[in-house]
Amino acid sequence: MSAPLVVLGNPLLDFQADVTAEYLAKYSLKDNDAILVDAKSGDAKMAIFDDLLQMPETKLVAGGAAQNTARGAAYVLGVGQVVYFGSVGKDKFSERLLNENEKAGVKSMYQVQNDIGTGKCAALITGHNRSLVTDLGAANFFTPDHLDKHWDLVEAAKLFYIGGFHLTVSPDAIVKLGQHAKENNKPFILNFSAPFIPHVFKDALAKVLPYATVIIANESEAEAFCDAFQLDCANTDLEGIAQRIVKDSPVEKTVIFTHGVEPTVVVSSKGTSTYPVKPLDSSKIVDTNGAGDAFAGGFVAGLTKGKDLETSIDMGQWLAALSIQEVGPSYPSKKISYSK
User: Fold this and answer.
1) Domain ranges within the chain, ordered by starting residue
2) Residue 133 to residue 33: CA distance in whole angstroms
3) Catalytic: 293?
């Protein structure tokens, strides 16, 4: 059952639909953002899920950022190479997630909650933008002892990928994996995942950062990190932000900032490199939801295969390009192999 890549994140079922700018405005949402809502809070945004179930065009897609990345890595690596940890409810939604992971070749090590429903995410699409509204549900109840029960899988892994959204759930579980990775000299990849993470969960992020050997984020998340941690550079200076993260790190660290169709910025103690994104005709773009997750999937697959940094980044860009030609955070049903 062991696999070289272990992924930790929040498993969710995506409710995906095309909406209007007016619909976003109705719920005070931005056109390219990610927020959390809580069913217990009485937040008016919880009504979005009922809205979407009434829309005939709504698609239910297996989601959760790190789970998308796990399936993307498995698309490249094949069956049995990826283990995924997260918490779900005992319901039809988690069965759907389990089936999707099995089809993708991912081994799901779910912690199952008997009295809490599986988490869900409304992916509201406007053109090439997507606004994510998430009710974590059962995903919010993952506990570190679930890792203890399956520690043989942790010990057998060669590297770890952590979705930043899990910082809202169990930083202690992330630290537990981080300590193991540090003690055994294994790569530990952390994705910031959303701009609200550095702002709202700054303490949790600061607790986990020392263990990360690789950080992945997009330009909005980098800007949020710069503001939250009050770095002495412009919040649009991706290279400057990355340099400060690397400089302040107690471990050798590589920072990767994606920037849409702009070049990917990579900074380590060895210096700065940029990697242009290969252009894709706009007529081929179906859906950009999950593009960042796909990049991470291709990248960690490259590292798992022992590829160098440049090749791994190219694999990430390649898989992201494949994903945005599909509906939702998914990949072509007919396997396409990477070639540089």
Assistant:
1) 5-11+64-117+137-323
2) 8
3) yes
Q: 157 and 6 in contact (C-beta within 8 Å)? A: yes
Class assignment of domain 5-11+64-117+137-323?
A: alpha beta
Per the prediction, the chain carries an average pLDDT of 94
User: Exactly one of 14, 135, 293, 314 is catalytic; which is it?
Assistant: 293
CA distance 46 to 127: 23
Selection from 139, 140, 77 nearest residue 106 by Cα:
77
Q: What angle, rounded to 10 degrees, do the helices at 291-304 and 65-77 form?
A: 50
Element spanning 303, H or E: helix 291-304
Tens digit of each residue's pLDDT (9 = 90 or more) over 249-261: 999 999 999 998 8
Helix (H) / strand (E) element for 298: namely helix 291-304
User: Does residue 85 carry a pLDDT above 90?
Assistant: yes
Q: Specify the pTM.
A: 0.91
Report the b/e string of 89-101 with b at 16+ CB within 10 A.
bbbebbeebbebb
- pLDDT tens digits, one per residue of 103-154: 999 999 999 999 999 999 999 999 878 899 999 999 999 999 999 999 999 9
